[in-house]
Specification:
58 residues; mainly alpha; 2 helices; elongated
């Protein structure tokens, strides 16, 4: 699995994270991360479609 962690270890980590942060806060964090990734992709798309300006040294 991931870095040598089995299914049991991943479930234990998930439970601990849920106990620390709570379900509502994790959902909010996930939504904010989704918005950030969407904005990043939009920025990349706009940058790649914008015409590049050539600089002349003369």
């Amino acid at each position: 699995m991931i870095a040598g962690l089995g299914t049991t270890e991943l479930l234990i980590i998930l439970v601990v994270v849920l106990l620390i942060f709570g379900v509502g806060r994790i959902g909010k964090l996930g939504g904010e991360m989704g918005t950030a990734v969407q904005s990043f992709r939009k920025g990349i798309r706009e940058t790649s479609t914008a015409p590049e300006k050539e600089e002349s040294n003369g």
